[in-house]
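User: Hi! I'm working on a homework problem where we have to compare a predicted structure to a textbook description. Could you give me the structure for the chain below?
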Amino acid sequence: MTTPHNANRLGDPLRSKKKRGAVFMVIAISVIVHVLGLGVFGIIKIVETIAPKAEFEAPPLEVIDTPPPPPPPPPTTKRTQRSMPRPQPLVAQNPQNMDVPMIEMKDSDLALSGGRGFGGGLGELGGGAVDAVRLTSFGFDRALEGTLTGTLFDFKNDENGKPIKGMPAKKSGTNMALIPYFEPIVRKYSSNMDVDKFLRDYTKADANLYASYFIIPFQSASIAPRSFGAEGKIEPSMIGVHYEGSYKPQKSGTFRLVGRADDVLLVRINGKIVLDGSVVGNYSSWNYSSTNKRKDEEDLKVFFGFKENFYGVTGDWFNLREGVDTEVEVFISEVPGGHFGAYILIEEKDVPGLQIFSTRPLSDQDKAFLRKTHRDTAKFIK
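Assistant: Happy to help. Predicted structure tokens:
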């Protein structure tokens, strides 16, 4: 039997050749495509490497006009001195070593001119310049270092200026009936020196005065309201001045006060009454030492125009420490009206002699003023 051509596998070599050619073509094309791809990729990378980087341009800045500078301040006018003539200036760097001319004054009232202040003599006046400081027997019209603040009260009228009901009627001359009426008021106050009660219940002068010493010679009681600028507003009967503040003593030691007033004088140091120098009445619970009383009656320390039966009263001993704040309260009062006076001196234990009690060193201006108030002051100025 004869085998057909296909059966004898005569076409196999031919088909194998065709298959191999097709595979070769696929591989070649694939190689070519990869080579071309790699070439293109390489060219791109080369171009990126050598090409300059793009620069970003910022948007143009908006120009803002600079605001004009503020206008210059208006010119100031320099304060000029008063055209009125002034007394010889009482100014010194070391007032304790300066000769001061005697000062003319009326009723213990003095205006001290000082321009830019008073150096070490009168201390700093609140850090500012002043043209004049008025000085009276009741104090300066401005607060100085070491001074006590003084307030004048009218015990005849309430805080609204209206007469207080029940006040003893005045018959003629001085009203002596006011003394027993006024005693319980002051006695209650003296137990704690509650000046706030006075402020709530009674009329007070508009202005304060600031004192460091208390030398008020015996004279008309009208000096009090006049000194406080209340003349014509406050009648000089049943009035009183309360002083309070603190100071730093210049020396440590044991001291006592000697003083007197017509009518009322109370002094409290660090919360304790150390002297009641009132001439009449029972104004405090202070115990006048019998030894001191007997000695005072023998010595009859009568100063500043007081009568012999109004001799100086010696107070209790108390201690002071140099540079340590010391609280001081003083109350002086005139009750029935007429004449008034008060003074406070100080004595150091085992040191003979009395000096003027002051909460700040006496300047030459102070000394000149005190010498003018009364001839007795010279013996107590050291």
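For your comparison, note the following. The chain is about 25% helix and 25% strand. The CA atoms of residues 96 and 364 lie 6 Å apart. Good luck with the assignment!
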